[in-house]
Amino acid sequence: MKKLSGQYLYIFLLVTIILLWSYGWVLTKMGLSYMGPFTFAAFSLAP
What pLDDT digit, counting tens, does each position of 17-44 carry? Predict the structure, then answer.
């Protein structure tokens, strides 16, 4: 298998980070439909 050049690797990593970040936003919106924002923040910050 060919090794990716540096530029393509950086683009792949950037796209991966963007997808993970946007999926986190979707999960937050889904969680807020079940509980209030302060309760959600308390659960997300709980150890």
Answer: 999 999 988 888 888 899 999 998 898 8
List CB contacts of 43: < 8 A, sequence separation 6 or more. 35
State the SS3 of the chain: CCCCCHHHHHHHHHHHHHHHHHHHHHHHHHHHCCCCHHHHHHHHHCC
Contact between 26 and 17 (Cβ < 8 Å):
no
Q: Are 29 and 21 in contact (CB under 8 A)?
A: no
pTM over 0.90: no
